[in-house]
TrEMBL record:
Residues 28-95 form the HTH gntR-type domain. PANTHER family: GNTR FAMILY REGULATORY PROTEIN, TRANSCRIPTIONAL REGULATOR, GNTR FAMILY. Pfam families: FCD, GntR. The keyword Nucleotide-binding does not apply. Keywords: DNA-binding, Transcription, Transcription regulation. Residues 1-27 are annotated as: Disordered. This is GntR family transcriptional regulator. The lineage of its organism: Bacteria, Bacillati, Actinomycetota, Actinomycetes, Kitasatosporales. PROSITE patterns: HTH_GNTR. Signal peptide: none annotated.
């Protein structure tokens, strides 16, 4: 959050996204709309790693006041997506290879055992309820829609882990996935083929779970969160 003065114009050295992000989704609060729009801009690469953005400039870009932008950016700062730059705005965080490896490791430690336990506890037909979410991911990936796929990916994993009944686990794994979806500094944007390969793993995982092929399901789940398989 900019500190000390109320800004009327964008700060020197702060940027706004070069292109308008996706339209903010309809939610009850302006803050929620802004937060969703900023998440889209992060995933889509319109908010570039290492760049500083002013809350007033972003507010003008999205057609809102600076207050909900600051509030949304503060939440993103708490999630590690941005860093506060006093009197200037917010810098989009840059992730190192170590950051990516640690995210993948923690995701594997939490998600894979949970999926293995669920595989042995739930009847095969229960998994078919997740099929529309997997299909939505494939559809978005086929369009090369990185933002749409990120949303579908998050919805699939959220629904999957929520089957454990553990709200805290669902919250933590959802946060880790969101962090893993941010593009790295200077890294290439994911190609359609890469998105499709990622999306196809959701389908393959469901197929293995329905067939009660536990070892196959565990292998797919582990590869799915691997930093080597998905570098960004």
């Amino acid at each position: 959050m900019e500190q000390g003065t109320a800004e009327q114009e964008p700060c020197v050295g702060a940027r706004v996204p070069a292109q308008a992000g996706p339209a903010a989704p309809r939610r009850h609060s302006v803050r929620g709309q802004v937060l969703a729009a900023l998440r889209h801009a992060l995933v889509g690469g319109e908010l570039a790693p290492g760049e500083v953005y002013s809350a007033p400039a972003l507010a003008e870009h999205y057609g809102v006041s600076a207050t909900p932008v600051r509030e949304a950016m503060q939440q993103l700062a708490g999630e590690g997506a941005v860093e506060v730059v006093p009197n200037r705005g917010f810098r989009v965080a840059e992730r190192s290879p170590r950051d990516l490896a640690e995210l993948a490791e923690v995701r594997a430690m939490l998600e894979v055992p949970a999926i293995v336990r669920l595989a042995r506890a739930l009847p095969p037909e229960r998994w078919e309820g997740l099929r529309p979410l997997a299909d939505a991911g494939v559809t978005a990936a086929a369009r090369g829609d990185r933002v749409g796929y990120a949303e579908a990916d998050h919805a699939f994993h959220d629904a999957l882990i929520s089957l454990t009944g553990n709200r805290r686990l669902t919250e933590v794994t959802g946060d880790l996935l969101r962090r893993a979806q941010w593009p790295p500094a200077g890294g290439p944007r994911r190609r359609t083929a890469e998105l499709l390969a990622d999306a196809s793993e959701h389908t393959a995982l469901l197929d293995a779970l329905v067939a009660q092929e536990y070892a196959v399901a565990e292998r797919i789940a582990r590869e799915h969160v691997s930093v080597a398989r998905h570098p960004h």
